[in-house]
Amino acid sequence: MRTISIPKSGTxxxxxxxxxxxxxxxxxxxxxSYDGTVIVWNTADPARPTExxxxxxxxxxxxxAWNPADPTLLATASADKTVGIWRVPQEGPATLVNVxxxxxDDINSVAWLPDGERLICVSEDGRATLWSVLDGxxxxxxxxxxxxxxxxxxxxxxxxxxxxxxxxxxxxxPASGSGAARKRHYDSSIEGCAWSRAGxxxxxxxxxxxxxxxTRELEHVLTVEVSSSAARAVDWAEDDSAFxxxxxxxSLHWFDRSGERLHTVAxxxxxxxxxxxxxxxxxxxxxxxxxxxxDMATAAELSGPERATHGPNALAARGDELLIGGDSxxxxxxxxxxxxxxxxxxxxxxxxxxLSLTTxxxxxYAGTYxxxxxxxxxxxxxxxxxxxxxPSLTVDGGRLIAGTYNGEFLxxxxxxxxxxxxxxxxxxxxxxxAPIPGGGFLSAATDRTVEAGGAxxxxxxxxxxxxxxxxAGLHGPEGSVVASASRDHTVKVGRVARTGDGGWSTGAPQTxxxxxxxxxxxxxxxxxxxxTVLAGSYDFNLYCWQVxxxxxxxxxxxxxxxxxxxxxxxxxxxxxxxxxxxxxxxxRIVFVAVDEYGAHIQHTLHIDDIAQSADRKQVAA
Length: 621
Known about the structure:
Blueprint: E1 17-22, E2 28-33, E3 37-42, E4 50-56, E5 61-66, E6 73-78, E7 83-87, E8 95-100, E9 107-112, E10 118-123, E11 127-132, E12 137-144, E13 149-154, E14 160-164, E15 168-172, E16 182-185, E17 190-195, E18 202-206, E19 210-214, E20 220-225, E21 231-236, E22 242-247, E23 251-256, E24 261-266, E25 270-278, E26 281-286, E27 292-295, E28 301-303, E29 312-318, E30 321-326, E31 330-337, E32 340-348, E33 354-360, E34 363-368, E35 373-376, E36 380-382, E37 392-396, E38 399-403, E39 408-412, E40 419-424, E41 430-435, E42 441-445, E43 449-453, E44 459-463, E45 468-476, E46 479-486, E47 491-498, E48 504-506, E49 510-512, E50 519-525, E51 532-537, E52 541-546, H1 552-556, E53 560-564, E54 569-574, E55 580-584, E56 588-595, E57 598-606, H2 607-613
Antiparallel strand pairs: 1-2, 2-3, 3-4, 5-6, 6-7, 7-8, 9-10, 10-11, 11-12, 13-14, 14-15, 15-16, 17-18, 18-19, 19-20, 21-22, 22-23, 23-24, 25-26, 26-27, 27-28, 29-30, 30-31, 31-32, 33-34, 34-35, 35-36, 37-38, 38-39, 39-40, 41-42, 42-43, 43-44, 45-46, 46-47, 47-48, 47-49, 50-51, 51-52, 52-53, ...
């Protein structure tokens, strides 16, 4: 397993901040990041937090937790499937005390029991496990979910609450080791929870934009309407008089204990995947290099990030320009001539991340994390907030289609950006859309399915064993080929055809193996008779397969690594000349072509070089 290696430029992180955690006395803040590090900040002066230590994992870090009994111990949870136990003194270097490494999947969250000797870890595999920390002994499994377990919170009296994408909230008493867990089920995914400081109330952050307050017995006390987007994270003030919620509308929301709204802070730089409160302060994650700190009572920002990160999330093309959209909210329009970058123009569309891009002629459309669709045709226009992040966009029949985190297709008027129609499309986030010549589009979602068709009457082509991250099509006179990339570590590829009744038919798709981790993006090269499949993985590798329709067993055993990156791969785009542009979160962008000798890399760019060479003149309001 390779280690993330993203060049650091200045202070703070080099990629978005996934989690924030205050020390028990509120004097220090640990921030976890996609760059594979945890940075510990001294927050004694919240207007000027300073870095005091940097801890490193091999993969992105999802969360951390300070020990309640020993303020120098910090647990860190990583996608490298380990939990690190670190001693982080107020002065002097941090040291690694132990590693809890017997996990089968990414660790999403950790929480200490009040004795400070045992730790609960929850994982993508749905399990909640209890560990003796200093000797690394596995003690027990204290809970399980049918889907990803997303968070654990332990109350002052030692009750452990776990929540997951299966909509289950479970409360157990791991200290006693007796008694069945209390459970409550929701129709929506639950990604965040937090016990009040007194331990009498559990706040549960729901995917439908609400927060429920529950008793220890999981009896309902109150439902708070937070946002039209998913509520992702929640934490309580030290006196339990108020709580703060981070929502996928890009905002932070303050409420008192009775559910009355106190403040709302909208800042597209904030990644509200995590919030934490202590000592009259609130911390929130960020898509930039440093956390955001606020006054708990007034919601006034005390400090924030000073530098954007440019991790690419989306690619598209406009004429002979490659368009690159990422975490900074800037789209870079890069013209490539004779295998080299000849010009890069920045288009400043928004302050928050761009998740998706598509074009219609010279017009650029961008889907954002905050749930807006932005149009650029020389001037900037934005839709209203559409209620959820927009991870996918395409144009079909003159209409702009947005795939949302909520599993919907939104049909948006391209001229006015008004929402015309909203359709429940998939049972999970619509991660990827791809146009089909002659009308219709492909879709891939976290409900594990790949579909084809128009707005209604769609055909399921196939299903994966886990969520589907991306779908791509290759179309020619002999028909169409579709490929999809999944978290089940596979790519599926199959020939599809329109049927007389307007549906789609497909034979059994071939399964391509190679990746050791989730496959994030996919594309196709060559012709439909014997296409070349490209796929990028969270294991940092770019894979390549040559499909032989007559020998599926041979294809299963084929494939090679075409290139290695320094972080996971994020997106691909098939260019008009048949090449494919491939981007990684380390900022590299490679151009892949295929000839009689097979697929090969023609040239490479880097997003930091593009950003530095681009004309910094602001071209959008």
